[in-house]
Amino acid sequence: MKRKGKESEMMDIKVDNENIEQTALLKLLGVNIDQHLNFSDHIKHISMKASQKVAVLSRLRNLILEKPKLQLFNSSILLHLTCCSLVWHC
After folding, report:
1. Which domain holds residue 79?
2. Long-range pairs of 77-83 with CB within 8 A, sequence gap ≥ 24
3. Torsion over CA: 71, 44, 25, 33 (sign)
4. Helix or strand or coil: residue 69?
5. The pTM is what?
6. What angle do CA 41, 35, 43 make, to 5 degrees?
7. Which of 13, 29, 39, 46 is the most buried (most CB within 10 A)?
8. pLDDT tens for residues 37-62?
9. In a domain, 84, yes or no
10. What angle do CA 31, 5, 43 make, to 5 degrees?
11. Which tens digits make up the pLDDT trace of 16-44?
12. Is residue 85 part of a domain?
């Protein structure tokens, strides 16, 4: 594993004499965090999910009324975009 031309050292971390395994990506409470504490994979995944749901909603634009469309947007698309958004901006 390299970062800015330097090799990262593997650290041995122990809790109660048990080794903690180092991983490249961790999913914790629905948020993907990489080994550099970066959320770019998580944001990419969430953006893809929201984009797919927007495409479905756009196909339904002439079939359902405005209020049900807004409810679908709020419950399925907006939820993904706002969940954990405070974490992304720290």
Report:
1. 66-90
2. 77/50, 77/53, 80/46, 80/49, 80/50, 80/53, 81/46, 81/50, 83/30, 83/46
3. negative
4. helix
5. 0.59
6. 15
7. 46
8. 887 888 888 889 889 988 988 898 88
9. yes
10. 20
11. 888 888 888 888 777 788 888 887 888 88
12. yes
